Structure formats: C-alpha cells, structure tokens
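Q: A reviewer asked whether we had any structural model of the full assembly, not just the individual parts. We don't, so I'm hoping you can provide one. Inputs are below.
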Amino acid sequence: MSKEISLQALQRLPLYLQYLKALPADKDIYISAKVLSSALGLGEIQVRKDLAAVSDGGKPKVGYCAAELIKDIENFLGYDNVNDAVLVGTGKLGKALLSYDGFKAYGLNIVAAFDSDPGKCGIDESGKQIFHISKMENLCERMKIEIGIITVPAASAQEVCDILVKSGIRAVWNFAPAHISVPAGVLLKNENMAASLAVLSKHLSEKRVCENNSNSI
Amino acid sequence: MSKEISLQALQRLPLYLQYLKALPADKDIYISAKVLSSALGLGEIQVRKDLAAVSDGGKPKVGYCAAELIKDIENFLGYDNVNDAVLVGTGKLGKALLSYDGFKAYGLNIVAAFDSDPGKCGIDESGKQIFHISKMENLCERMKIEIGIITVPAASAQEVCDILVKSGIRAVWNFAPAHISVPAGVLLKNENMAASLAVLSKHLSEKRVCENNSNSI
DNA sequence: GCTATATCGATATCCTAATATCGATATAGC
DNA sequence: GCTATATCGATATTAGGATATCGATATAGC
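A: Here is a predicted structure for the entire assembly that you could use as a starting point for your response.
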C-alpha cells in the first residue's frame, strides 16, 4: 500500500468508498473486483489495479474484505486525520458549501468563512462564523489551516488566492470560474463547472447521437 | 473546424474563452499561442492543437484574432443556441445553482426546478418556479428539455435520474455524491467534489512536499 | 521592396493510463 | 481431503494525450 498511483485512479477511490460504505457494515463481507466494476461502470482490471495501490491484497475466489478496503482507502486518502479549512466568499455557493455537512466524511472541516463585505460578517445560518477578510491571515496562521476554498467572483479570485497563500495555505480549492496561479508547493484544484458544461453542451450540439456506451464522464 | 477533439481539450476550451473575454473587446486584437499558454499555465503546443480543432487558423507572426476565436469556440461548444435545463432537488446546493446567473454565458438556462417536498414548491427567491416532482415528466416533454441537473441526496439520485431519462432528457449533470447509470445515448457528467477532495487530502497527507511545478489540476 | 523572425501547422516521438493475457492461489463444493 | 474454479496479481500490449521537432509563412522593421 501507499504505492504509486495515477491522478485518475486517485480520483476514482472515493467512488469505491461510496459504494463500499453503502454495503451492510458486516465484518465478513467480501466483494470481488468484478462486482465492483460492473456496479460502478468501470473496467474490471482497472478496479483491481486501483485497489492494489491502496490495499494489501484480496483473496482468490472471494475478493476483497469490504471493511478492510474502506479502512485502507480512507487511510490512503488521509480521511482519518481531519483537515481544517477556511472558505472565502459567502455568496450563494459559499453559503451552500458552508452548510453542507457531508464534507466531514471526507475529512474536511470548514472552521470559518471570510468575506470582504462587512455587512455579511457574523454568524452564518450554518452556525459558522463569517469574518472580515482582513482577519484571515492572522486566523489561518494561528490555527495552522492548510486548505482554502475560494467561492468569490472571478475578478477577485487571484487576489484572494494570494492572501490565502500568504496565510500559509497549502491547498487551494477554487470554485471561481477563473484561472489562478499558485507558487510551487501549493496545490491548486479547480472545480471546473465551465468544463463540465462544455462537455454537456457539445454533446447536445452534436445532433447525431453517437450511440456509444462510454457515456459517463 | 469541428474536427476531432479529445475530451481533455474540450474541457480546456472554456479556459481559453474566459481569458479571451477578459481582453478588451477590440476587433483587431491578436493573441499568440505562446501568450495564451503562459497566461493559463498550459503547454504552448497544446494550446495550438486545441485551437486548431475549433478555429480555421491563426496568422504567423501575429497569432489568432481574439474576436474570431471567441466566436469559433462558442460556436464549437454550442453556446450560441441556448440549452434549456431543469434542476431537481432544491436543497442548499440546488438553490445556489438556481440563483447563479453566470450559466447563461455558457448557453445554459434553468427554466424550472423540482422537489419531492410539497412544502418547498412555489416561487424560489431566484424567481424561478419550483414544482412537485410528479409534474416533471409532463413539463419536460412539453418543453423539450434536454438537460437535467441533479442536486438531491445520494440515496435518491438514481431514482431521480430514471425519471429524467423517462422525461426525454439527453444529458444529466449529477452533483449527488453517488454513482448513477444511464442508458446509452444519454450523457452523464458527474460533478465530482469527492474526487477533488481526494486529491486535496492526499496532497496534504503526503507530508514531504514534492516541489513539482505541475501543481494545478 | 527586402530580409529577418515570430509564429503557425504538420509530423513524429514520448509518456501515461487503460486494457488484455496468462499463470498463481486459495476457497467452495463434493 | 481432493478437485474444479473464481478470483487475484503480474506482465505485456494497446490507445490516447501531451510534448518535441522541423519546415512553412506572413508580417514587422528597416
């Protein structure tokens, strides 16, 4: 375990996790790569290779122990040690993410939010504190926050990102529809809804429906 | 133009669009692949190849005409002919997307929303009508809606998707953290926040910071 | 008008990821 | 306890995308 893994494989791991957690939490449930692959619409060999990177093996004839697998994947992804995060920009999307209580399952804990509008500061309906953005650097450094979530308009995304980096953030999750740049050592992950829309729109504009099977992206 | 394009290239097109639109809307602005690539953190040849798929060419020494390029990309992606969509699930995320007025720039128009909770039906604060889910099939068929956006809890995602497909939807945009399956001919695009979180979490759990440059994903 | 050069576009190469093939192994069933 | 087989894991092959190389071309500057 903790071997090499491709970016694609890494991003498939939560899929396995989601499926495995939906199974009855019996200690002796075993599942084969074949079952997993057909349930998730993936290739069987691909599943086996992905799992090989995180677990120390399944058993012939029965497959992988589901409970073990969950533990291995969560451990591999670092979901066991919770990551604290801050969110910047409390518009509609920001508030939606603040209120979403599903993140804790992924080891993500949003501890506070920031906004440049003093009128928005205070306690959010989610119960979380919204501070003025001028307080960010100090708070992040004191609390050793490592993840910053950007939900501001495109125009201010780079500016906000720079402050986050200055505050010691090591991973940025960007929801703004803008390209931003970060120094080496800081990870930038764009949540690219525009890219998704491009795929949808292109598919629909191709009036001739190509009846292929690999239609999930 | 309208040649072959890879899925990755397709998803990069909105990036170019966003950058080009930020330029002054002068008719005679030209931009080279070199400038574009360094501004967006991409490879120069990659940019040239991507643009070759949508436009009918740049000029040596000066590059591509920005205004032409915008037109070509939007045309290629089908952003000019607006796509009507419906949204299912009016929780926090659903409401956030309903209120987001940036979609129209991508040719997406959410015409109505649906929820299984009769208490949530009526006019949303965004001004859009929320109907009971039982009305969905009829409305989608009458209005020839082709895009369905799923923002319901994971447990009901597949059920909702099935209704959408039955209603004639041809492209599904799934925000639920669940694997769902669609018949051939229908495109499924997962907006996979769990996958993004996996990348972030893994990066942070690797305590030894690999100081590589390709840190944007 | 001429030349030097920035830039494009096509072809070729490399690299990563997905898929196929085949032997190994432990379990289920008798 | 024995055998047949479902499944795993390793190696090899294929496919796709990203990158490099090189010649072509039209423009900018003189």
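A: Points you may want to mention in the reply: Confidence is low (pLDDT under 50) at residues 208-213 of chain A. Chain A touches chain B through 70 residues (CB under 8 Å).
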